[in-house]
Amino acid sequence: MLAGLLLLCFFPFPEAQDKFFWGPLSDAFHYPMFFVLSAALFYITGAGVRTGAKLALFLLLLAALIELAQPFFGRSESAVDFLVGAAGVFAGWGAVLVVQHGLRVRLLYLLFVALVLGTLLLPAWFGLETLLWRARHF
Question: Is the terminal CB of the chain with fewer CB neighbours within 10 Å at N or C?
Answer without folding.
Answer: C
